[in-house]
Amino acid sequence: MSQNSPPAHGRPGTDAANREEQSTWDAKAFYNKLAPTKKPKTPNPQNAITIAVSSRALFRMEEEQKIYEEHGVEEYVKYQLEHEDEPFEPGAAFPFVKALEAVNTRLRELYPESEELFDVVLMTNHHAQVGVRLINTINHYNLFIERFCMTGGRSLIGYLKAYHTNLYLSSDPGKVGEALGEGIAAATIFSPDKVEEVSDTQLRVAFDGDAVLFSDESEQIVKAHGLDKFFEHEKEHENSPLAHGPLKGFLEALGKLQKKFYAKGQRLECPIRTYLVTARSAASSGARALKTLRSWGLETDEALFLAGAPKGPLLEKIRPHIFFDDQMFHVEGATEMGTVSAHVPYGVAQRYKKSAAKKEPAGGK
């Protein structure tokens, strides 16, 4: 018998021969060779950085969504079953998720037993029958997504909390607003008008400051009293840290992983890079933003103070995997220039937007 063949138990023969046969056969090694290559172990949600992504954010499902809206859930499910062997096209969040996986690969090389990794959870409130097509698509692109949550129409909030979600990305503004209202970091993600190449070895995340990393305290001053009063207020409170905004915790989580690379002497080769991209002016209001980050024990790799200039052209040079802003004006400008952008509907700017919409006459722009 070959050394790679399993023993024929119950076969006639001497005890000595059987013992010799047993000693030449390693069952574990034999069956490991037969088994398919295993994906890495999924980390415990309490130890991981959980990124919840809706199916429509991760994949392009416009046609399917149109069927759902125009013909209802039964036709939607029927269509998905008929096309379950056809993978979806990558959506807005796809490059971001691939970059998360690239970081995980590097982390596992440095810390093989650590569970401090990104853990991507696919979230959808559609029917579970859609799951087969989603699984087929994930396997088609060789994505490492083990956790699915398909709620069949129920709210996602309880599940987001159960997964200890650090960030929730969706294409549905209503669900994002609900999550933010429950204290969960969330944003509505938008596909760029043109596809720009992004790094496949370094995760790049760009944040606006006020009402994203920071509270909307300063924006309230601008809306109520204008820019001059804002500059005066920022100078007066330069050494008073701003309160935290909805995505402060996500930046904190990124910083925690960055430090794991720094501890191994890989600051310059770190596969995570963060950016503060703000309309603030460096001279008149930039110091407070930087001092606030310092007071939290946080930092960004780069800080870009644009003094009101458009953000799109600069983001085109940075090419982040995702850019977060509370103002749709900046989100739209960034997507026009090819940046995957995410709207954080938080703070006073959203209230002003709603008030303007209510005052707008029927048929107005």
Structural class: alpha/beta
Biggest sheet: strand arrangement: 5-4-1-6-7-12-11-8-9-10
What is the overall shape? globular
Reported for the largest beta sheet, the result is: 10 strands, mixed
Poorly predicted parts = 1-14, 16-37, 354-365
**Would you count the extended β strands for me?**
12
Strand content: 15-25%
Count of DSSP-assigned helices: 16
Average pLDDT rating: 84
Rg value: 25 Å
What's the arrangement of secondary structure elements?
Elements: H1 15-23, H2 27-34, E1 49-54, H3 55-58, E2 59-60, H4 62-71, H5 73-82, E3 89-90, H6 94-110, E4 118-124, H7 131-140, E5 147-150, H8 157-162, E6 165-170, H9 173-181, E7 186-190, E8 203-207, H10 217-225, H11 227-236, H12 248-262, E9 272-278, H13 282-295, E10 302-305, H14 312-318, E11 322-325, H15 328-336, E12 341-343, H16 348-359
Parallel strand pairs: 1-4, 1-6, 4-5, 6-7, 8-9, 8-11, 9-10, 11-12
Antiparallel strand pairs: 2-3, 7-12
Helix pairs in contact: 4-5, 10-11, 14-15
Would you mind describing this structure in some detail?
44% of the residues lie in helices and 15% in strands. A 10-stranded mixed sheet has the order 5-4-1-6-7-12-11-8-9-10, sandwiched between helices. It has a two-stranded antiparallel ribbon with strand order 2-3. It contains 16 helices and 12 strands. The model is unreliable at 1-14, 16-37 and 354-365 (pLDDT under 50). It has 365 residues and is of the alpha/beta class. It has helices at 15-23, 27-34, 55-58, 62-71, 73-82, 94-110, 131-140, 157-162, 173-181, 217-225, 227-236, 248-262, 282-295, 312-318, 328-336, 348-359; strands at residues 49-54, 59-60, 89-90, 118-124, 147-150, 165-170, 186-190, 203-207, 272-278, 302-305, 322-325, 341-343. Helix 14 (312-318) crosses helix 15 (328-336).
